[in-house]
Amino acid sequence: MNQSTKNIGINYLKPLILILGALGFLFSANPQTSQVSYLFCLNPSVQPFSISVQDDGYTLDNIKIEKFLKENGITRIEKWIPQATENDYDGNIYLNRIYRAYIERASNEKISELISLTSSQSEILYAENEFIRKPLYSPNDPLTDVQCSLNSVKATQAWDFWDIPSGLFPEGREVLLASVDTGVDYTHPDLQNNVWINQAEIPEWMAEAGLDSDNDGYIEAEEVVDFLIGEGMDINGDGSINLRDAVSDGSPFEDFEDNDNNGYADDLLGWDPSGWYGTDDNDPFPKEDVASNGTWAHGTHVAGILSAVSDNEYGMASVAYNAKIISVKGSRENQSGEPGINDGYAGILYAAKAGYYSGTFTIINNSWGGGGYSGSENATINTAFNTYGAIVVCAAGNGDENSGSQEYGAHYPSSYENAVGVCAMGCSYSWGNWATYHYSVDLAAPGENIHSAIIGSSFEAWDGSSMASPNAASCFGLLKAYYPSWSNQELMDRMYMSADRRVYEVNPEYETCNGNSGDDCFGHGMVDVYKAIGMNFSPYLMIDAVSVEMIADDDQSLNPGEAASLIINLENEIGWTDADNVTAVLSTTNPHITMINNSSEYGEILNGNIQSPLTNFNFAVSESIDLGSIDFNLMVYADGSDGYLYSNSLDFDVEVSLFQNGFPYDTNSELKSAPVVADFDNDGDNEVVFADQNGEVRMIKDGVEVENSIFPFDTGNQVWGAISSADLDSDGFLDFVVASKSKSIYIFDIYGLKSEYDADRYLIGTPVIGNFDSDSDLEIAVGGYSGSTSSNSLFVINYDGTDVDGFPYVVGEKIKAGAAVADMDGNGIDDIIFGTDSDNLHVVLDSSSPAPNFPVSLSDRIQSEPAVLDLNGDKIILTGCKDNNFYAINYNDGSLRFLIPTADDVFTSPSFSNNLIYFGSDDGYVYAVDTFGNIAEGFPLGVEDEVVGSIVFADLIGDGSACMITGTSGGKVFAFDSNNDLLQYFPIEYQYPIASSPTVVDFDNDGDMEIVLGTTGDLMMIDMKNDYFPDSDFWSLFKGDNARTGYFSFDGGGDWSCGTPASGDINCDEIINILDIVSVVNMVIGSLDNYSDYELWSADVNQDEIINILDIVSIVNIVISE
Fold first, then answer.
1. Mean pLDDT of 421-445
2. What CATH architecture does domain 33-131 belong to?
3. Residues 933, 898: Cα–Cα separation, whole Å
4. Cα–Cα 20 to 30 A to 221, which of 193, 345, 656, 798?
5. DSSP H stretches of helix in 766-806
6. Collapsing DSSP states into helix, strand and coil, what is residue 229?
7. CATH 2.130.10.10 region(s) of the chain?
């Protein structure tokens, strides 16, 4: 809110001042008032009275008022601001005529009655509640090396307006930053040298004694301490010599005279209006023997933010750099528990006078407050501002103290006329939803995780509007140092004018006060001291946009080994000076970058305008560079006004990646469902169809997402299973199928929804496409997964959404994962293989009946999508299980062919390549086994995190061999060559976990492969750069094909037989042992139909062409003999 608006509101309220004490609730939620005291103010015509205190009470030199007070139970009375004089007034409110009256027992009702009675007395101008004011902070964990606030308020840039490395510093001696608070540990090693020393209160003889050791005419705190140490003056006898000795009884710095006529004797370094019970003294140190990081350290923490010593190789820095700290203690030491602020307004008046009478300028910080308007308080603020020329900066509040949430409301003193109200933001302009916001706020400043000093010599990071207020006050201090002749109003106007309104870009709803009355509830914006100082003579150039153009590649993605042009657009921010003769030089420390053209000119850039370079910057990237960011620096030079030479160092980065242009594509949702990449409109270019956890089916065509009356299509609930695709109705266009938790199956082509099937059951597995009846069309199968299992079914439907005869097939068990499809019984029609949460592996034939010997029961839930290996006509079912095992089941008799144990659940669907079966486990390993269950050499292969979806294979390096690709829950994509060595640039680490199985396809038809994966936040596509072998054909998709059949057939004898044949070595592991005995026993007592020619030959140990008990005896003898 601007100052004029705040003034209008308060001026309107002044005629109502007599009732405002009782109506404070109108201005702020839940103001806290004292139950033992209230304030009253005498009319200007009534002389201030003298108070005499005796053991049995008090007397006044105004008999009428004394009688009234005693008759109404007033047990004690004191001046509200003891040092106020006739010069301290605001309108008809004289601060030296305001008194605090006490009653014996706490009572809100009694206080309200007394306010009414007192106000009715003719000598009384008004009476009002005394509001309780509290420090406004919340402690956080210790922090040692981060001060984000310095960058947020642009202090580090503002310091460049001085030549600090050459010894030209801000002139801070004439700028006083007052911490009116719980007191300041002014002996803290990072505060002491910036503590204000009141030059007029130093006895004249001491100056003559050489106290000014550097003869610069100014006595610094460091010189005072050096003098005391040199004289051995441990005056307070605490065993150490420091500034406290200078204000201890018997100090040579005390002469009991008010030498500067400000009304306070011996105020050498500040003032304590509170003392122990409320008696003033000149030592504003916090209460002793308290926690170094408790509330009594609040004033010290504030003082560090105001003006800790900068550039001293210790602790922290402050925006004001070297301004002087005044400690003003407003908390009485007789308080137990957490201290409140008892005499804050007496402290405000002192601080204002201290600066005025010393010929300097005071910025008074008040990191405390509460609800409820007080005319006495506002009069004090106005006096400090109007009479003594001070700036009064106040914290706007910490929200609702009970709930810890944000609160809309006025807060005092921050909402008073002539106070600068400051609300707390995050360093990145974010609103933390815990502080107070209101149209009376003037500025925002960082108030989260703010690092500063505490009592002693340490530092901590605290949160609170208490930290935001001194950040803003310190900015006022640096601004005053640059413009020493400016008045308080001029400084405030400039700070408001230059504030950064980006807070409303990040939090737009607060520009209209989040639905409450008023606007701009973060004030004019985040305090920006850099702009406040420089906007009249300096431009402010920043990077608007950086674009990369490939010199010899049109995919617009910077890859290793490429050359590129950089187009760096510069913006001169509005409100600054125009920039003339702008030039820029580009550099990088990356050894894998060769600069070709590193400089350019921009000409003139008017404020508020954006300009492109006259010539582009060019560079080349080595093939040996790592994927990731290249850090660049752009050094910008320009002419400002009045001969000012502007320069700025701008850092940015450019990504070197293997990502396809336009990817990763932000989906704003998780993609567990494997996408389909295919040419759906027969135009020769591929589209990508994917479905997300929001339940939307989406399509990317020609590099952009399709948004029309069809797509995105909202299914109404999450999509977990992969999308399957085939030309279901033989119309020449590919269709695609989505199953949703909305309990429906959706069948599309690129032109829209063709049919919908309501299963009335959650559908979260992959729909699989096959020919499940005797016609020529394809059908769709998917299982139900609803809570009531008795009617859970396997659904098989036609492309038009009608049921296939004999289906749904009631399973009575929950089917979470998709099925596999194969002609298991050899009748030319596909059958369906799936697992359930009841631990059963089912085979349902096209006749809508279970296959013989099925279901087979495993030992835990089956939530892996199975695959079928057709090995020379024998069908082997392969599946993972939640019992940490991977199973191979012989279809012919349901027997266990082999079992592979892992260390965690197996959810992945099996894959096939290089004569091996592959699967991944949640134990972070990829497994490869042969058809006998033997672990392949080099496996298990570690990939650090859970393997997601399925493992796929493709020619990524152009040699015709199969590379293995997998993604993990840790956000890494792995690619291995045929020797299990990682390909160059892999693993590729990504910011989000991988969520879907990879798909490898030549997406853009450029002769190389792309790897497509879903993540928890977007769709990723990695562009490989080697042409693939044209005849290569691998298991490159989830479940092997877009129909998601999970079927792999092998017909030729040699490839899948044993490479080291030996009689008796049934499982071909080159060892004849108990496992081979078990195999022969199984053959003798069971069927021989499921075994390969090699296994049958090897089991006939005695070579009589009959496998029987004699072979068992023979192999046992072999094992015993070996």
1. 96
2. 2-Layer Sandwich (3.30)
3. 6
4. 345
5. none
6. helix
7. 665-1050
Dump pLDDT digits (tens) for 124-141: 999 999 988 866 544 333
**CATH 2.60.40.10 domain extents, the chain:** 538-656
Task: For residues 110 and 353, give the distance between their C-alpha atoms in angstroms, rounded to a whole number.
Answer: 36
* pTM, full prediction: 0.70
Which residue matches tokens 């090699």? 1094
Write the CATH number of the domain with boundaries 138-198+267-371+381-399+417-533. 3.40.50.200
CB 1041 within 8 A of CB 1081: no
Domain with CATH 3.40.50.200 in the chain: 138-198+267-371+381-399+417-533
Which segments of the chain belong to CATH 3.30.70? 33-131
State the average pLDDT over residues 1078-1089. Answer: 84
Q: How far is CA 127 from the centre of its chain?
A: 49
* CA nearest neighbour of 1084 among 1108, 1104, 1064: 1108
Q: Which of 537, 527, 522 is nearest to 470 (CA)?
A: 527
Residues 6+ apart with CB under 8 A from 1017: 666, 667, 668, 669, 670, 991, 992
Q: Which CATH class is domain 538-656?
A: mainly beta
pLDDT greater at residue 766 or residue 145: 766
| Nearest alpha carbon to residue 225 among 256, 200, 193, 265 | 193
DSSP structural state of residue 414: T
Which amino acid is present at 46? V
The CATH classification number of 665-1050 equals 2.130.10.10
- Backbone phi and psi for residue 384, each to the nearest 5 degrees, phi listed first: -60, -40
Cβ–Cβ under 8 Å, residues 912 and 1048: yes
Specify the pLDDT at position 145: 52
Which phi and psi (to 5°) does residue 1038 adopt? Answer: -60, 120
The pLDDT tens digits for 213-261 are 888 889 999 999 999 999 999 999 999 999 999 999 999 999 999 999 9
What are the tokens at 377?
A: 């308080």
